[in-house]
Design a protein that fits this description.
Blueprint: E1 7-10, E2 19-25, H1 29-36, E3 37-38, E4 49-56, E5 63-72, E6 83-89, H2 93-104, E7 108-109, H3 114-121, H4 127-138, H5 142-152, H6 155-179, H7 191-220, E8 222-228, H8 234-242, E9 260-266, E10 269-275, H9 285-300, E11 303-309, H10 316-324, E12 329-335, H11 345-352, E13 356-359, H12 368-380, H13 395-416, H14 421-439, H15 444-454
Parallel strand pairs: 1-7, 8-10, 8-11, 11-12, 12-13
Antiparallel strand pairs: 1-2, 2-6, 3-4, 4-5, 5-6, 9-10
Helix pairs in contact: 3-4, 4-5, 5-7, 6-7, 6-14, 6-15, 7-13, 13-14
The structure holds the ligand Nc1nc2c(c(=O)[nH]1)N(C=O)[C@@H](CNc1ccc(C(=O)N[C@@H](CCC(=O)O)C(=O)O)cc1)CN2, guanosine-5'-triphosphate, potassium ion and magnesium ion (MG).
Length: 459
Amino acid sequence: MYERDTIAAISTALGEGAIGIVRMSGGDALVMANQLFKGVNLLTQPSHTIHYGHIVDPESKQIIDEVMVTLLRAPKTYTREDVVEINCHGGIMAVQAILDLCLQMGARLAEPGEFTKRAFLNGRIDLSQAEAVMDLIEAKTNKAMQASMNQLQGSLSKKIRSLRQTMLNTLAQIEVTIDYPEYDDVEEMSLQQLKTTAQAISQEVQHILKQAQSGRLFREGINTVIVGRPNVGKSSLLNRLTGWDKAIVTDIEGTTRDTIEEMVNVRGVPLKLIDTAGIRQTEEVVEKIGVERSRKALEEADLVILILNQAEDLQEVDLELLKASQGKKRIILLNKQDLPSQLDRNALAESSGTATIIETSMLEEAGLDALEDEISNLFFKGQLQSTDINYLLNSRHTQLLKQALAALDEVQSAVAMELPVDLIQIDYTRAWDLLGEITGDSVQDELLNELFSQFCLGK
Ligand SMILES: Nc1nc2c(c(=O)[nH]1)N(C=O)[C@@H](CNc1ccc(C(=O)N[C@@H](CCC(=O)O)C(=O)O)cc1)CN2
Ligand SMILES: Nc1nc2c(ncn2[C@@H]2O[C@H](COP(=O)(O)OP(=O)(O)OP(=O)(O)O)[C@@H](O)[C@H]2O)c(=O)[nH]1
Ligand SMILES: [K+]
Ligand SMILES: [Mg+2]
């Protein structure tokens, strides 16, 4: 069924490493490798064995490298095809030379992700699992890695399949209602029931989308932007949280000219911390651009840390920033507590709403614990534990889920309008299909087959 050509690629990072792997997959992988390998006859060796020997250029007879060759016969392999892995010396020369020899033997250079694509095409993993492999490779935080591992093990697929199963049951009943009106015991599939299922599924889909939003935060780090007027202590905060003097701190206003990013881990919460140029009216060209970037960073933030200097009274820019950050998750710091207070707390209360206010002194390193507590509270408060971050959605998944939601909405309003069942069924089936595209399960014909196999009518 899977007579695909044999592909080859370097499967380890190019660069100086101790070992590099050239991997081949396909029906001719073993034969090709055997032509290059001087050692035992690979063709007669059992599967899942590893063999010491040399790679020799069959034309020049030149020894290219001393290697270990792993032999994996279909179907218990990564791609479900025959796989050979040539473990050679690291660096660029040996792996490249051995890859070239594989290509000379007739293998084709694999496209990016093609081994994993074959794992999908040959049915070992589904689409969302294949996508998880890519996420795993790109994971930058421990939590991100756990999340993609969950996905790789099929958590999203499992969830989607169970939703589709529920929908399928409803569809099956409708089908019977339409085609076999004489079965009056199943004819009771009321429109109301259809609506209820659509509602339930729609809630679940919304839940997945919401969870995934949190998942994204953990995968990429929470975009945390430090804003405030010049000299309030933004760069000082960045340095305190990162534990080293990443940003320049001086008593000169406008020291930070451009946004500075650093990943930090606050009580297990990964933050992409962004220090910005102090916001003020300026005609200075470079600073002006910096201020623009600060405002943009504020707009894109998942979390805003707004710093005020409590040794001065609130200024227009402070009020403007309080307003601009209103709709966001935010924490307000009253910095420079070591200095006499000048800030009118009542005026602040009017503009700060329900935001948490923390008193700090970067100079004396005071209030940082309270800040870390608050950050971890904001993101862990009951709803989010690392083990819950099951779903990693890429934009394809998100699109499909949103489209499915729209279709389910249509179902609900069609029911409200008392449209005929077979019309409503179209939207319902569309939602079912859209969800199926996430796992790669959706095929139109499949719907009918499944319906019949599920709902054995005995005719
Ligand atoms: N040398 C090497 N290391 C590697 C990989 C690889 O391809 N080669 N992997 C590449 O990503 C990862 C391991 N992932 C793998 C996933 C599935 C199978 C596999 O053979 N699955 C079969 C048989 C399982 C079994 O024996 O029980 C299957 O699911 O049918 C192999 C590796 C990480 N380390
Ligand atoms: N007394 C006192 N001084 C502080 C405190 N935090 C920061 N400073 C000082 O205030 C000055 C400005 O600090 P920065 O961290 O550079 O301020 P900033 O907000 O990054 O300033 P810009 O980059 O210019 O916008 C420096 O001299 C710091 O040492 C504090 O809590 N107390
Ligand atoms: K400064
Ligand atoms: Mg600064």
